[in-house]
Design goal:
- By secondary structure, the protein is α/β, with parallel strands linked by helices.
- Helix content is 41%, strand content 19%.
- The chain has two domains: 234 residues, Aldehyde Dehydrogenase, Chain A, domain 1; 143 residues, Aldehyde Dehydrogenase, Chain A, domain 2, CATH 3.40.309.10.
- It has 14 helices and 16 strands.
- Strands 10-9-11-8-7-12-13 form a seven-stranded parallel beta sheet, with helices on both faces. The chain has a four-stranded parallel beta sheet with strand order 5-4-3-6, sandwiched between helices. The protein has a three-stranded antiparallel beta sheet with strand order 1-2-16, with no helix packed on it.
């Protein structure tokens, strides 16, 4: 049962106990055959489908409290679980069960002239802590991905989704029980006390890696305070560059989808860059955004295109709106687009729309982001769309994984060395 802050006087002791149980479970999972892990996830997916009405009811209570607390529309959209979203969440868990198991995979082999043989193989990370806000689907995605990659996990969801998270976690536990796996392989922190977050961040030697998913404030705190490695992105300031050689209809479709399909996701476009040599494309794309209900903030060069446009200021180029708002400016071709992204981007997701293969190749090679797209919406910044079954987050850093983090990103490697009585001279 979820406890209050008053009922959790020693968060450090709680996380230490959960970590010890997780460490024991991780040892079991590391040696668990693929089929047993897959069976647990299939059972969990079936339990999620069966519990859909209960999960929806729990979510309705969370939504009611969130509205009363004044959460933003973007946060409410992230929190909401419809029957379709619950079904998609369950199907995502089942799809993870069908993915190739990375644990034990041979990455490479080599042999030294003296006959010493080396084999590098994938192994689980160990105990993973996930700290997240709003999105209750993370409970299912993160739990399933961690388990399939042989890791135990400790999940700390936000208080706004507490009821939803508990209902989803119960279905995951049902799956683990059905497959005979330890229930503590996927644990949900049983308190909304914020001290539990601090305890997880300081749990060096207990938790092997922390993955935050949430707003800028949460991620900044995690990155500033964590005493364990962190896999995260801070902002999703994503760009779409419309080149002079772009197909007009394609440009409109991609820009509108990138911004407005779901404005609250981290892959949403925030800034539109338009080739100065293509004013006709600027007029068409901006009109489409405005007609679709998007507020567009522009430089003076663009202001005369439509009376509905508003003036941008310096802060707009560095803002993640997560709303139906976008900034837009002309740039001098692909080089200008790359320069703007280098100055204002967050290394998350950026796209070019063009039929010029040379311009596309330049953009793809020189934009230093985790995901770079050609003639595709930035909303594809999603592990499910990458074929990963789901994602535990999107990394923009330079640790072992970058972009959507799926099963492979939840493993590291060790090197096995085989000799024939070798001793070092």
């Amino acid at each position: 049962m979820m406890t209050s802050a008053a009922a959790c006087p020693d968060a450090n002791a709680l996380i230490a106990a959960m970590g010890a149980a997780a460490r024991d479970s991780a040892a079991v999972l590391a040696a668990t055959p693929t089929e047993a892990k897959a069976a647990a996830l299939r059972a969990a997916a079936a339990a999620l489908h069966a519990a859909s009405a209960g999960i929806e009811a729990a979510n309705a209570l969370d939504m009611e409290a969130a509205r009363a607390a004044g959460l933003s529309p973007a946060m409410l959209d992230r929190l909401l679980l419809t029957p379709a979203r619950i079904a998609a969440m369950a199907d995502g868990v089942a799809s993870i069960a069908a993915l190739p198991d990375p644990v034990g995979e041979t990455i490479t082999r080599w042999q030294r002239p003296d006959g010493l043989a080396f084999t590098r193989v994938r192994v689980p990370l160990g105990v993973i802590g996930i700290i997240y806000e709003s999105r209750p689907n993370v409970t299912a995605d993160a739990g399933a991905l961690c388990l399939m990659a042989g890791n135990a996990c400790i999940l700390r969801g936000g208080s706004e989704a507490a009821r939803s998270n508990r209902a989803i976690h119960a279905a995951l536990v049902t799956g683990m029980k059905a497959a005979g796996l330890p229930e503590t392989a996927i644990q949900l922190v049983p308190t909304t006390d914020r001290a539990a977050v601090g305890a997880m961040l300081g749990a060096h030697g207990v938790i092997d890696i922390i993955i935050p998913r949430g707003g800028k404030g949460l991620v900044a705190r995690v990155q500033a305070e964590a005493r364990v490695p962190v896999l995260a992105h801070l902002d999703g300031i994503n760009h779409v560059y419309v080149d002079k050689a772009a197909d007009p209809k394609m440009a409109v479709d991609i820009v509108v989808n990138s911004k407005l399909r779901r404005t609250g996701v981290c892959g949403s476009m925030e800034t539109l860059l338009i080739d100065r040599a293509a004013p006709h494309l600027a007029a068409r794309v901006l009109k489409a955004l405005l007609d679709a209900g998007c507020e567009v903030r522009v430089t003076p060069e663009l202001a005369g295109i439509d009376a509905r446009l508003t003036a941008a200021d310096a802060a707009d180029w560095d803002t993640e709106y997560l709303d139906a708002i976008a900034s837009a400016t002309f740039v001098d071709g692909v080089d200008g687009a790359i320069a703007h992204i280098a100055a204002h981007g967050s290394h998350h997701t950026d796209a070019i729309v063009t039929d010029d293969a040379a311009a596309a190749a330049t953009f793809l090679a020189r934009v230093d982001s985790a995901i770079v797209l050609h003639n595709a919406s930035t909303q594809y910044a999603d592990g499910g769309e990458f074929g990963f079954g789901g994602e535990i987050g999107i990394s923009t850093g330079r640790l072992h994984a970058r972009g959507p983090v799926g099963l492979e990103g939840l493993t590291i490697y060790k090197t096995l060395v085989t000799g024939t009585g070798h001793i070092r001279p």
